[in-house]
Amino acid sequence: EKGRPTDDIIFVMLAFTGMRVGELCALKWSDVDFETKEFSITKTLFNVNGNKEGYELLTPKTKQSVRKITFDDNMASLLKKHRLIQKEQMMAHRYMWHEGDFVITREDGYPMSPRFVHYRLKRLESFLVQDYDFKKKLHPHIFRHTHTSILTEEGVDLRIIMQRLGHTDAKTTLSIYTHITNKSKAIAAHKLGNVFDD
Q1: 164 counts as catalytic
Q2: Residue 2 in 3-state DSSP?
Q3: pTM for the complete prediction?
Q4: pLDDT tens profile 83-141
């Protein structure tokens, strides 16, 4: 099969929030505030061998990784639809449902492991290579680059991007930021050239 029901929510959330995959897997419904439209990032999920019962919730990578990430109405709508699907799964598996309050789960309520997210992405990559001659190697971290690129192209300030990503050091963010802004400068120069020609 090319896609699973959870693929959409996983990859959209990674691309539009800038969360690390472990942060996404550790996210609980109690961390989602629909009133203020914010995610509270306070933990990361560690699961060394993919065993569903062998997960641990750890403190995030750095002090700056503890943060709030705002989301919009589109994300709120996607989350609410996902929660309805999850409630149906909960009813179907009520005698063996793991009551962990996780947003991204397996079919029995246990949290999805970062390894499984990586596996899903590799599965999708193989279909893209087969059907579209896709050349890029995919890994969950690429969505943080996507998030940075989207925000940079929309003119969002570097400090806000860093806060969303939970970065302490600007070096990583700046490399993507500089690449996109240089591209934007070239486009601006080209557009000005067209106006000048006219």
Answers
A1: no
A2: coil
A3: 0.83
A4: 999 999 999 988 899 999 999 999 899 999 999 888 888 877 666 566 666 667 777 78
Catalytic residue flag (residue 83): no
Q: How far is CA 148 from CA 56, 67, 72, 128, 192, in A?
A: 28, 16, 17, 23, 26
Of the residues 20, 82, 147, 164, which is catalytic?
20
Q: Is the pLDDT of residue 3 over 60?
A: no
145 carries an active-site annotation? no
Token pair 């560690």 is at which residue? 46
Residue reference for tokens 């065993």: 51
CA 60 to each of CA 46, 66, 131, 166, 191: distance values in angstroms, whole numbers, following the listed order? 10, 7, 37, 9, 43
Determine phi and psi for 106, rounding to 5 degrees. Answer: -75, 180
**Worst-scoring range by mean pLDDT, 31-45, 50-64, 183-197?**
183-197
Among 67, 82, 164, 167, the one annotated catalytic: 167
Both tokens of residue 10? 């996983």
Please, what is the end-to-end C-alpha distance for the chain in angstroms? 53
- Catalytic residue, chosen from 67, 82, 144, 147, is 144
Note whether 109 and 101 are within 8 A (CB): no
Local structure of residue 110 (DSSP, 8 states): P
Q: Is 94 a catalytic residue?
A: no
82 is catalytic: no
